[in-house]
C-alpha cells in the first residue's frame, strides 16, 4: 500500500479545487508525515510510561488510534467514506474522550474493551486487502449460506418472522446486506401482512429498507392493500425443497415455495440494468476469480429479487414508472394503478417454509438478563433513548388502497344498518352514495413522510412520537375504464402522539393503582394532535359525494329526533292511560306522522339543493385557503394487560 504523494510547492491549486477538497467526505486528512510523528509519539508513550499507559493499551484504544492514523495517512477507502464534516481528528478525539470517561469505572472499562477490540478487527479488514481476502475465503467455506463481497456481508432466504404477540401476521425479508465501511444494513424484498380485525388484514410491500446505524432509516416507497378477509399463516403445505447432486439443499429453493421465481442460477439471472442495486453497487469486483464470481452471484440474486418483486411486476403491468421530471399528480395516479393491481397478488407471495415466532425469540433471552432489566428499568430507557433519537425514519411514499365495495359495505353497516329498510328516502340516498363507491378503488397516497420518536431517560417524562408528510391525496380508480383521478388533495399534515412512560415494558411499578370499584375505569390516557395544511382540492365527484352524505346525515337526524319524540309521547301515554281514552293516543300518532312527513317533504323540496350549493361553495374556498386545521384530543387505553401478577421485584434504578 502506497502513501498519497505530497503536493509540490510550486504547483498552485485554484480556489475551485480547494473548495471541492473542502467538500470531500473526509475533511482535514492527516498527512503521512504527521501520522508517522503521532504514531511515533504514541509508541514512545507506551514504552517510556508502561505502567500509566498499560490500561490504554489493554482497552484497545491505543491500537485503534494507531490504525486510524495509518488509515488516514494512506487514504484508505474506509476513511474516505466518512460522513461530511467529520475527520480523523474528530474520530481520535471522540475515541480517547470516551476512553477517559470509561476508565474511571471498572464496569465501564470492561464494556469499552468489549466494544473496542471487535472494532480493531473490523478496521484491520478494512485497511488490509490481504486480510480481507483471507477472511472472505475462510467465511465462504465455513458459512456456505452467506455472501461475502468486498466489505459487505449478505444472506438470503432467512426464516420469516411470525407475529404472535398482540396481533397475528407474517414478516418476510427476502435478503439483507451489511456494509461494514458505512455501517449500513439493507433489507431487500420486504413483505408484511397482519390482521387488523377478524375479517380484515393489510398487506404491505417494500423493495428496500436502508438502515444507517446511528444516522437514520430510509424506506423506499411502500405499497399496501386492505383486504376484506382474514390472513392465515400456513407454512405446512409449501413445496419441499429439492436436493442437488451434492446432497445439499440449494439456496434458492431452501425456503421459498415458488422455486421457479426465486431460483437465482446463472441461466435465470436477468441482464444487468443501469439502476444501482444495494450499497456500493457501482464498485466493480476486482481481485481473485472467487471474488468476481461472488460479486456476480450477489448482483444476480439482487436483480432476481427486484425482477420478481410484486411492486415491480405491478409497475411493469401499469406501463412503467413515470419519469422523475413528471408532475406529482402523474406519480400519484401511477401509484394508485399499482396498488389496484396488487389487490390480485397474494398478501405474502414469497413465503418461506420456515418461520420463527416473536414469543420464541423472547424465550431465548437468558433469565439473568430478564432479571437485570426487570430490576433496572433505567437500562431499557438508556438503550431506547439513543436508538429512537438517532434513527429518524424517512419514507418516500406510502400508498394504501382499498376496494370501494368494501368501503360501501362498511358505510352501510356502520351508518345505514340501524334504520329501517322500508324507508324509501333513506334507501335512495344510500344508493346514490354507494354507487359512487362500489365500482371503484380508493388509494390513500402520502409522500415524504418523516417520523421521530423520543424516549427520555427520566421516567417522569412522556414518550413523544411525531410524524409529518409533505403532501397527501385520495385517488379514485375505476378498474373498468382504467381512469384514475384525485378525489381529494391536501398540502400536507402532521400528527403527534404522547404516551406515558409507564407503558414501556418492566415499568409496572409506575402504573396507577387499580380502581377500588368496578364503576371506575382502569385506563391510561394517550394524547393525540393532528393537523392538515391548506389548500385542499376536491374533485367534482367528491363534492357531489359529500353533498349526498350530508343530505343522508340530516335525514337520518330527523329520523332520530322524531323517534325520540314518539318514544316520549308513548311513555307519557302509558303513564296516563287510565285517565285518557284510546282514541286520544291514536290521534297523537296520526298527528306525529303528519308532522314528520311535512318536515321531510319540506326538507326534500328546498334544503337538498341548498346543501349541495353550500358544499360546492366550501370546496371552492378550500382551494384558495391558506393555513391549517387541527384536532387535539385524548383516547383511553385499558391497563388490564399491563399490571403484573404477584409481587413486583425491587427496583434498583427506576
From TrEMBL:
Keywords: Membrane, Transmembrane, Transmembrane helix. The keyword Transmembrane applies. Residues 8-23 have a biased composition (Basic and acidic residues). Residues 1-28, 262-295, 309-336 are annotated as: Disordered. The chain crosses the membrane at residues 30-49, 56-73, 85-102, 114-135. This is Uncharacterized protein.
